[in-house]
Amino acid sequence: MTSTLTKWYEEHGRHEIFAGGKKVGMGDAQHTLLLNQEHVMASANDTLDKLGIAKNAREEKLKARDAKIKQDGENAKMARLYREHVLGEKPKEGFIPLDTLIAPAPKLVSQPAPAKSEEPVMGD
Description:
The structure is a single chain. With 124 residues, this protein is mostly helical. It contains five helices and two strands, in the order αββαααα. It starts with a helix and ends in a 23-residue tail after the last helix. Strands 1-2 form a two-stranded antiparallel ribbon. The radius of gyration is 41 Å and the shape is elongated. The chain has helices spanning 5-12, 37-41, 47-51, 57-85, 98-101; strands at residues 17-19, 22-24. A hairpin with a 2-residue loop joins β1 (17-19) and β2.
């Protein structure tokens, strides 16, 4: 079984640390950090969420994508209004069948084959 680094330190103590060829003292391992209990018990800071500000790159990309989709929709709406009011095109309402999107194939009318006339062949 391999021991963890923490367990190794408990059993054997920490090794010496050298920086620039000089011994660096470890000092006391106990910390003196004091926590403000009011801050510990306070709720999460959601100021950026309320203001609509992205907190990371992923949120920035999502906001940019959503803004682009919204702008594309607005551009399509304005283009439709331009075609309708300025160019005078009539809007097409409802279902559009596929037949109207593709030009119909020309109808083939059976006509009698032209009479073949024999051409004289000049011999060798």
